[in-house]
Amino acid sequence: MHLLWFRRDLRLTDNEIVALASANNATVLAFFIIDPWFYQWVDIGKARVQFLFESLENLDSNLQKLGSKLILFEGNAVEIIQELTQQLTQQGHRPKLYFNRDVQVEYGISRDKSIVNLYQALNLEYDLGLNNFLQSQDKREQWFNEYYTYQRQPIYPKPTIINTPSLSLNIPQMTFTELKQKYSAFCQTEQVYFIGGETQAQSTLNSFLKSRFNGYHWKLSRPWLAQLGATSHLSPHLTFGTISTRIVYQETKVRAAELTNQPKAEFSLKAYRDRLRWHDSFTQRLYFYPEIAYKNRYPEFDEWYTPLGRVIN
């Protein structure tokens, strides 16, 4: 029995844990945990939550096409996985947990450590995959070469079928209707700029590579042009993992190869790949130093900022 825990990797294509968990016709229970902790943050905007819910619905739809489905649990992730593992063990299964390493704040770091400790204590297997490239050790001088080695590797293909078991679990589950009703306060956005989901992510990339990339190298610094589609519009998709940076990198390289006789167009795509690398480089730094989300990496800069982030004159 394989447990497939989706987090910020809401896609089936080029997802390491999806490929590994579903290999050899193994039985797979795919799930996502609605953790109330996430919705208590004052800076969690409605558009972000709506994008997440749309991505979850699209993931469920794509799973159903493969004979599976996405189960929604709600509650503390450690408690949910502990109870799920216990019930499966009591039913005679030896569950193996698959989940991807991810950039976390302190809460997530502590949560993941607790879950790993749980599985080690129970002598059960778990597999920590890569959602996108992340070094396991902080070796900044090697990051550049390792990054490109990863980006050039073949992507994990989407499974053609996922064997989902029929189980009786005594753990409350949510339907998507119940999810949107309970968190309806987050689903009342006045204007939708980005639609969530892997299907939409690929469509957005396709439209960017078709024509919108032209002039990217100078349009990206002009916000009014960005709103008109001059940038990729993939940022929220990369954040929630509805598309991998490796897919974006490789498809951008393919498109650039088609434009070798158009230097400016080719340069725009190179500028975009450089920007993508910058994004991934900062993600790597945040992985090792999560505190930089709210404090300076180097304390000598503290005197330049007040707690509210205003520059001191």
The rough form would be described as: globular
What is the CA-atom radius of gyration, in angstroms?
21 Å
Which runs of at least 5 residues are low in confidence (pLDDT < 50)? Answer: 309-313
**Average of per-residue pLDDT values:** 90
Q: What is the total tally of β strands?
A: 6
Query: Spatial order of the strands in the main sheet?
Result: 5-4-1-2-3-6
Helix and strand element order: EHEHEHEHEHEHHHHHHH
- Biggest sheet features: 6 strands, mixed
Structural class: alpha/beta
Report how far apart the termini are.
60 Å
Helix share, percent? 40-55%
- Tell me what portion of residues adopts beta-strand conformation: 5-15%
Determine the number of helices (DSSP H or I, runs of at least 4 residues): 12
Question: Which descriptors apply to this entry?
Answer:
single chain, alpha/beta, disordered C terminus, 313 residues, 9% strand, six-stranded mixed beta sheet
